[in-house]
Amino acid sequence: MPPLRPQPRCLADFFSYETTKSVVVKSWVVGVVNRVVQLLILSYFIGGPCSWCTPSGRVTPRGDAGWVFLHEKAYQVRDTVIESSVVTKVKGIGKYGNRILDTADYGTSVFVVVTKQILTENQEQGVCPESEAAYRCASDHDCQGKGHTTGSGVLTGRCVPYNTTLRTCEIRGWCPPEVDTVDVPVMLEAENFTLFIKNSVRFPLFGFEKANLPPHISAGELQRCRFHPEQQPLCPILRLGDVARFAGQDFASLAATGGVLGIKIGWVCDLDRAWELCLPRYSFTRLDSVTRHSPGSPGYNFRHARYYRGHNGTELRTLTKAFGIRFDVLVYGNAGKFGIVPTLINTVAAFTSIGVGTVLCDIILLNFLKGAEHYKARKFEEVPEASVPPAPASPTGCTPGALGDQSREKQSTDSGTFSLGL
After folding, report:
1. Are the C-beta atoms of residues 195 and 238 closer than 8 Å to each other?
2. What GO MF annotations does this protein's record show (predicted)?
3. Above 70 in pLDDT, residue 299?
4. Which of 107, 332, 379, 397 matches a 20 to 30 Å C-alpha distance to 259?
5. What's the Cα-to-Cα distance from 276 to each of 60, 103, 205, 221, 336, rounded to whole Å?
6. pLDDT value, residue 387
7. C-alpha pair distances (Å), 31 with each of 39, 336, 422
8. Which residue has the higher pLDDT, 60 or 250?
9. Average of pLDDT values for 79-83?
């Protein structure tokens, strides 16, 4: 029978098989590194015994151990879809000029508290000189190359007297045009206005619903309370001056130019705990802080008009340029509840990650410690396929075990574990 032709090296490597071989290395350095890495991994996933306990035994979050299971609550199913409804109501009386303003005067549908107004009264349709300085002129020729419209109307192409010393381009529109550069007072009484926020949320995955109103508070107590982050953190009535202060703003400066403040309500709930412990948390910020120093359009303002008829039936209007503080209520949150699937997944991940310690110790042994070559020789060993000759037929028909000790195969009690002392 011809001998077997040797197979190519790459083909033999492809069809080779690797099996685990246990080598016990008696080294204090490697042993300490291995146990420290394992302890750190377990602390990251689960945490040591009472890793968040105070000396009195009371559990208090410290945030230094058990990040995955204790801090991030990886054993829970989380619902990040929050359905929310917000209703706001402003109360307060303010004096602006010779007028007394109530809720209907300073509030709008987008929830803006007006703190300063520039009024242009008794406007009617017609022609009049433009009030903007950019449209000053000396002759009609100066008004014919400035485009077709201005901020107040449509140019007629004529240069007309604005007053006894100044001439400007004539426009067709609502006259007289607005002059928004005048200095007007600010209604600082708005600092003491109160804001009532009624917010309800729902997490549809768990069918959980909650409102921001304290559950056992009477109507009288609700009207008297005022929000404070430490003393009354659940009170839904906020003083506007406090909102500006919590956002790091000066109310007088904010009222003069206008601005946008954000009231954020966070609902981060652990539904494995009691229903009463799912509570809102309020925080405040200024949303237009990037553009508040813009020279072109600082702060926040808008225009609106009130139309009426004059004595002769002419349509008139009062144009108002209002500066105010806009409040945006932003609701966010998520809820979590125990689930067997994420618990199993993260538990398996925790115990699998313990193998990182073995990889690190192998790198140290194979590259940095004395006796690395000896360790490599013990760890990696190539064994060719053994060919076992067939047992000879017995003329007596007896099994090999019945022929005595000479025909018995030697049984190995070696477990494959080597012990190295480094």
Report:
1. yes
2. ATP binding; extracellularly ATP-gated monoatomic cation channel activity; purinergic nucleotide receptor activity
3. yes
4. 332
5. 19, 34, 19, 19, 15
6. 55
7. 12, 39, 11
8. 250
9. 89
Provide the annotated binding site: 89-91, 194, 301-303, 321
Assign a CATH topology to domain 79-94+186-303+324-337: atp-gated p2x4 ion channel fold (2.60.490)
Dihedral over alpha carbons 38, 43, 46, 52 (to 10 degrees): 160
Sequence ranges of the domains in the chain: 24-49+64-75+339-379, 79-94+186-303+324-337, 132-175
Q: What is the pLDDT of residues 6-24, one digit of tens each?
A: 556 677 777 777 777 777 7
Question: Which CATH number is associated with domain 24-49+64-75+339-379?
Answer: 1.10.287.940
User: What is the tens place of the pLDDT at every residue in 47-64?
Assistant: 544 333 333 333 333 334
Backbone angles phi, psi at 292, to 5 degrees: -70, -20
Read off the tokens for 35: 């146990």
Do 320 and 118 meet the contact criterion of CB atoms below 8 Å apart? yes
Q: Is 380 helix (H, G, I), strand (E, B) or coil?
A: coil
Cα separation, 244 vs 247, whole angstroms: 5
Q: Is the peptide bond before 176 cis (omega within 30 degrees of 0)?
A: yes
C-beta of residue 279 within 8 angstroms of C-beta of residue 306: no
Binding residue positions for ATP: 89-91, 194, 301-303, 321
SS (H, E, C) 115-139: EEEEEEEEEEEEEEECCCHHHECCC
| The pTM of the whole model exceeds 0.85 | no
Q: CA dist 35 to 24, 50, 254, 358, Å?
A: 14, 19, 59, 10
